[in-house]
Amino acid sequence: MPMTKTFTQDELIRYIYHETSDQENKEIENALICDDVILEMYKKLKNTIKQLDKIEKSPSDQIIDKILDYSKSVNLNSVRR
Amino acid sequence: MDIKRISDSKLVSLYGNGNEEAFEELVNRHKSRIYTSVYLIVKDTYLAEDLLQETFIKAIRTIRGNRYREEGKFLPWIMRIAHNLAVDHFRKEKRYPTVILEDGSKVFNTLEFSEDSVESLQIVKDTHERLKEFVKELPDAQREVLVMRQYMEMSFHEIAETTDVSINTALGRMRYALINLRKKMDKYKNAYDQNIYPR
């Protein structure tokens, strides 16, 4: 049985953010199936990153209105000059 | 034509020709991501809104002034403006901000739970609020990389170039940020559970 390559957390982070090559993807996915330690490490990182996705905040409507009003007030010709 | 289906690059082009609806769509599409990035850097909701406004004003002037040259890459471009403004702000102030919560208070309160917090929705909300605080508490270098990768969608290569470090250093900072957050969330969760289910 071929040995599974060991991966570091940094490599898993790159994998989660889709920054690994096709070859690396294959190797990591193979490791995730065969190695419980890697799988556990991956789950923890993935879960933390998933949580970060949920904390996006929205600015107030007032500030958005101000931005849109500013845009409308901008005179196209005066800016281009 | 459904404006929500139009690409950023096309919206920028339409807006450059005076289409305000296109600009409104760009603002609505990206306001939360930009605002969250700035907020997690400056840690103050009011200042983050000021910087968001300043960011869009710069974008308006650039696009309307026909000086926008990064077609198809609107989000990274405007994120860079926002990030630079946030960093410039601290260079001018020469100080690090205190942590200001959304209700205006400056402290990270000890864990207190009301009756309502037992409700699952409230728990989720509390957890997210706490996570925001934990992100804000990260060391500057770790928080910077985390915000750039997670919210500004910059690659580790771009982050390394922007922050003038190696890719390995950028990755290491991200790793420590995630480990720190994980530890804090686990600790918070345990405290939460013990408060609700005392032994």
What does the model show?
The complex is a heterodimer of chains A (81) and B (199). Chain A is mainly α. Chain A contains 5 helices and no strands. Chain A has one domain (9-73). Chain B has 2 domains: 3-93, RNA polymerase sigma factor, region 2, helix turn helix motif (Rna Polymerase Sigma Factor, Chain: A), CATH 1.10.1740.10; 115-196, Winged helix-like DNA-binding domain superfamily/Winged helix DNA-binding domain (Arc Repressor Mutant, subunit A), CATH 1.10.10. Helices cover 70% and strands 0% of the residues of chain B. Chain B has helices at residues 8-16, 20-42, 45-64, 74-93, 120-137, 140-150, 156-163, 167-196. Mean pLDDT of chain B is 81; it is low at 95-118. The interface between A and B is large, with 32 and 44 residues.
Give structural attributes.
heterodimer; A: 70% helix; B: 199 residues; mainly alpha; Rna Polymerase Sigma Factor, Chain: A; Arc Repressor Mutant, subunit A; 2 domains; 70% helix
Short description:
The complex is a heterodimer of chains A (about 80) and B (about 200). Chain A has helices at about 10-15, 20-35, 35-55, 60-75, 75-80.
Task: Describe the secondary-structure layout.
The complex is a heterodimer of chains A (81) and B (199).
Chain A: H1 9-16, H2 22-34, H3 36-53, H4 61-73, H5 76-80
Helix pairs in contact in A: 1-3, 2-3
Chain B: H1 8-16, H2 20-42, H3 45-64, H4 74-93, H5 120-137, H6 140-150, H7 156-163, H8 167-196
Helix pairs in contact in B: 1-2, 2-3, 2-4, 3-4, 5-8, 6-8, 7-8
In quaternary terms, these chains amount to: heterodimer
Considering DSSP H and I runs of 4 or more, what fraction of the residues of chain A is helical?
over 70%
Mean pLDDT of chain A: 86
Total strand count of chain A, please? 0
What is the SS-derived class of chain A? mainly alpha
Low-confidence stretches of chain A: none
Shape of chain A: elongated
Most extensive interface: A-B, 32 and 44 residues
User: What pattern of helices and strands is seen along the backbone of chain A?
Assistant: HHHHH
